[in-house]
Amino acid sequence: MAELVEIASAEDPRLADYRDLRDVQLRKHLETEHGLFLAEGEKVVRRAVEGGFPVRSFLMAPRWLDALADVLATTDAPCYVLSEALAEEVTGFHVHRGALASLARLPLPSVADVLARARSVVVLEDIVDHTNVGAIFRSAAALGFDAALLAPRCADPFYRRAIKVGMGAVFSLPWTRLPDWGTALTDLSGAGFTTVALTLADDAVPLEEAVAGLDKVALVLGSEGHGLSARWEQTSDRRAIIPMAAGIDSLNVAAASAVACYVTARR
Hints:
- The chain has 11 helices and 12 strands.
- The protein has helices spanning 24-34, 42-50, 69-72, 84-91, 111-115, 130-142, 160-165, 184-190, 207-211, 230-235, 253-265; strands spanning 3-6, 36-40, 55-60, 78-81, 99-104, 120-124, 147-150, 175-177, 194-198, 205-206, 217-221, 238-241.
- The strands form 2 sheets. Strands 8-7-6-11-9-12-10 form a 7-stranded parallel sheet. A 5-stranded mixed sheet has the order 1-4-3-5-2.
């Protein structure tokens, strides 16, 4: 059972994991250095714990203790109990979902382990917005994709905002970083996947046509600004578009991922 610890001061050193959550650069440094991540909200905290991630601590307002009592019963980690006003002072924002948890990261699996039982995979190149990464994970998980692979410069799926937008999909969708960006797509082709890049290339065909009849598919999505690099676009096995009405050439990458995952899942 978690130890309930009442907190009376925002300066309490035991709250270090939860400070200044709006400072992205500071949080990225802190969380990487200490190997932790934060989950926010009852559902996300519950999914993180159920996902097997070791709990460092909880932080919550008193009204959330009953709702998460079963989760608190599974660990002996401390649960810091404080007023919502004090929580806002510590974190730098209004914690309207009432509950936070600090959890330890686990080592990422190898690409081979992630792909071992996968047929449908999303592959992300240099998507740097945490909201977009979280939304893509949520769409992929919801629409039956088996895994995600991220290029080295993609945003951290364990960053609080990404986890929140993704509703904890990062805890259930197998994923890892690609160690070799340059050969990633040819390696996937060698592993039996047909790589299908979403792009406005001249030879792109409608996505439904590109994925029809395929067994193992790797759906490739590029960065928010410039889309896919020339290298990834050219080394993809197929190039595809989501047909648009006249005058509109593309969607936000998060929206495009939802449409693309749906079409690909129905192949």
